[in-house]
Specification:
The structure holds 2 protein chains of 2 kinds.
Chain A lengths: L4 E3 L2 E4 L5 E6 L6 E8 L3 E9 L2 E5 L6 E5 L5 E5 L8 E8 L10 E2 L3 E5 L1
Parallel strand pairs in A: 2-11
Antiparallel strand pairs in A: 1-3, 3-8, 4-5, 4-9, 5-6, 7-8, 9-10, 9-11
Chain B lengths: L2 E3 L4 E5 L4 E3 L2 E3 L5 E7 L6 E5 L10 E2 L10 E3 L8 E8 L9 E2 L3 E6 L1
Parallel strand pairs in B: 2-11
Antiparallel strand pairs in B: 1-4, 3-8, 5-6, 5-9, 7-8, 9-10, 9-11
The chains are: A mainly beta, B mainly beta.
Chain lengths: ~120, ~110
């Protein structure tokens, strides 16, 4: 089974621009969660999508948004980029149900640098 | 709101020595606790979860609800255990795909 795939792996943007990151979950997984990882704040939850609906949301400004498609692939968008948005963005997929096997599998991440 | 604290940012031990990575949490309900590990140049991966009550790569962790702790232990550390370790919590109710992570502990095992 292919793992969680994130594209692109690296991105360089300038302040004020917007960016879209993509995540393809493991086949059969219907839930995708996004996290921001920085040296100062560690891993912070952004949001989770399940069956094309946002099911959970973290404490990030509205500039951070996401969506999920019918094939469970997910995108996150950051508008009006700020220097502080420079981070590694991780996505994780899971089946999405309440069964005991429902654990999160992580992608390799997208490294975003904002100049 | 839930919180996970890993008090040690760095931990160094010698090969063959016991190792304990500490994790404390605050949450009023019944949480599900995990340990994730990230080896150099690899993605974050699950090491173990408390409901499985299993030993993975010689590591064990017991959930202590009285002390709100979920410490990770291994009796004899190996060099290949050197990695970043994260403790994570999933709250009950509608938390589904939301994990709250600690700040992580970098474990270095010296030969």
């Amino acid at each position: 089974k292919a793992g969680v795939t994130q594209t692109p792996r690296y991105l360089i943007k300038t302040r004020g621009q917007q960016v879209t990151l993509s995540c393809s979950p493991i086949s059969g997984h219907r839930s995708v969660s996004w996290y921001q990882q920085t040296p100062g704040q560690g891993l912070q939850f952004l949001f989770e999508y399940f069956s094309e609906t946002q099911r959970n949301k973290g404490n990030f400004p509205g500039r951070f948004s996401g969506r999920q498609f019918s094939n469970s692939r997910s995108e996150m968008n950051v508008s009006t980029l700020e220097l502080g948005d420079s981070a590694l963005y991780l996505c994780a997929s899971q089946t999405g149900g309440s069964e005991a096997k429902n654990i999160q599998y992580f992608g390799a991440g997208t490294r975003l640098s904002v100049l | 709101a839930q919180r996970v604290t890993q008090p040690e940012k760095l931990l160094s031990v010698f090969k063959g020595a016991p190792v304990e990575l500490k994790c404390n949490y605050s949450y009023s309900g019944s949480p599900e606790l995990f340990w994730y590990v990230q080896y150099s140049r690899q993605r974050l991966q699950l090491l173990l979860r408390h409901i499985s009550r299993e030993s993975i790569k010689g590591f064990t962790a017991d959930l202590n609800k009285g002390e709100t702790s979920f410490h990770l232990k291994k009796p004899f550390a190996q060099e290949e255990d050197s990695a970043m370790y994260y403790c994570a919590l999933k709250a009950g109710g509608t938390s589904y795909g939301k994990l709250t992570f600690g700040q992580g502990t970098i474990l270095t095992v010296h030969p």
